[in-house]
Amino acid sequence: MNVTNFVKFEFQSLPENVAFARACVGAFASQIECTLDDIEEIRLVVSEAVSNSIIHGYNNRRGEKVEIMVTIIDHDTLEIIVKDYGKGISNLEQALEPAYSSEPGRMGMGFTFMRSFMDEMEVISQPGEGTSVRLKRNFRVRDESVLA
Questions:
Q1: Contact partners, residue 24, CB within 8 Å, separation at least 6
Q2: So which residues are the catalytic ones?
Q3: Which CATH code, of 3.40.50.2000, 3.10.20.30, 3.10.560.10, 3.30.565.10, is assigned to 3-147?
């Protein structure tokens, strides 16, 4: 594994920072040879992960910290880690089910979207300590599979 480039930043748990995180990660990911659709998918998963941190991790409490680390590996793989220090997920298996949401009226499709647009998704969560979502996508593998 050869780290080509990385960025790490943190911001307050404000709803307006979802768009900020989306834009930052999308711009950073554009260093990889990929399509505009690929970038939009990356932006979508970042929106979902950051929104989960703000809405579920912090119960929309302002002023808490969300961290993002994005790494480009071997020029063609993107790894995104979104971390919060909120309430954590008490039942991770249930939270990963499609259409489940701990908030009535929400679609509960965030993890489903993340899983569908990425090659790997790992969620680590401890009640009372927070949640870390690691997302990984290799663009070379996807291109080769389309051509096969």
A1: 7, 9, 68
A2: 48, 52, 106
A3: 3.30.565.10
Q: 104, 56 in Cβ contact below 8 A?
A: no
Distance CA 120, CA 4 (A): 19
Instruction: Report the alpha-carbon distance of residue 64 to residue 13 in Å, rounded.
Output: 5
The pTM for the full model equals 0.86
Ranges assigned E (strand) in 13-129: 65-73, 77-84, 120-126
- Coil vs helix vs strand at 58: coil
Per-residue pLDDT reduced to its tens digit, 25-45: 999 999 999 999 999 999 999
E-strand stretches of 3-144: 3-12, 65-73, 77-84, 120-126, 130-138
